[in-house]
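Model it.
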Amino acid sequence: MQTPDTLPVLVTGATGRIGRAVVDRLLAARVPVRALVRRPEAAEQLPPQVQVFTGDLTEPASLDAALDGAGAALLVWTASPQTVGAVVEKLAARVRRVVFLSSPHRTPHPFFQQPNPMAELHADIERHITAVGLSATIVRPGMLASNALAWWAPALRAGETVRWPYAAAETAPVDDRDVADVVARTLCHEAHAGGDYVLTGPDALTHAAQVQAIGEALGRRLTFEEITPDEFRRLSEGTAPAPVVEMLLAAWRAAVGPPAYVTTTVADLLGTPSRTFGQWAADHAPAFTRDRP
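Modeled.
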């Protein structure tokens, strides 16, 4: 999987869940890795082989040292949109290729077509990439399996019933590890330049079925109680911004009825089956177990 000239790959978002996994996969393939971090102390969680640079997407000039001599870059946008154009222009001037971690906002499925500020930002970044002629691969994960950690783990650790809206909303959660595998492969193989890949898990599951799969991984039956959107809004007060809550509710409402959008892209690119949500739940079962004093 190593690039032919062994030029370093710069990973932005290197301390996030997917970015961190990409770092590990690149190192395993003996690819030199650079990481861009906003705070020097964040480097403590990265392997010692990683060359760390301090910089910020909101300050494009701070990327110069990290990009100098790099061959490719993973772009994970974690900043306000004001500097998108300047950062993309800098990438185009400094590296041969970029892999952009985007979203399936072009996918003609109701779940992906609801108003979504993050998807709008992703679309704007892609327009800038096209405008400057940057050689890019777009990777578009759908719903991430790891969302279950934020959504349901707190209640399950406390031994409570999962209370959630739209029990019948159907999605195909993709394992973060599969996303990282695809990103690493596209970073290391120039044949993927220009590729546009929508990633999902292999199985369509409703919210209720996902909770059931977690219960199977834990070896116990879990209780799922469907609540109304208004009840969800009240439960979310103080824990999530109102626009995010409304974005999720709209997407879930649109996912009730139509079959979930499922792709075979992970298996096609990697040559191995994509991980099921049940596999993900089994591997992350400790995160759902009861809190201990």
